[in-house]
Amino acid sequence: MGTYETIFILDSLLTQEEIDKTVDRVKEIIETNNGKVLMIDKWGKRRLAYEIEKKQYGYYVSIEFEAEGNLPQMLQTEYNFTDKVIRYLTYRYTKNKMKARQREIEIQKSTGAALKIEAENSDQKNEAEVQVKEAKNA
Q: Global pTM?
């Protein structure tokens, strides 16, 4: 199995429901072909670097997934038949990208754990301060 990322740009004039339906359709294609969606990242409406079909803005979506074989070709076919998609790109992660991604996940986990510890410590300090104040008032 390889790890892929597909980034596609939707027409910015679509409603949020239409955008969600299109993203769900891509997710469904991946999952019905024995793929596994790892992450869906909706970047939102952004200005295009250059006009595409006389449009200056587009809604960007990135989906990271694991799959085998010809799934990227199936996605390409789907994108070509969908008028809502104005541009797309699907690529496979290299070994270096996978290592960098793994480090990024580890950093996020350790940062999250550190923030959790800080929050617990601040809660304990607040409890201790309340107890000291109660003792002074008594």
A: 0.70
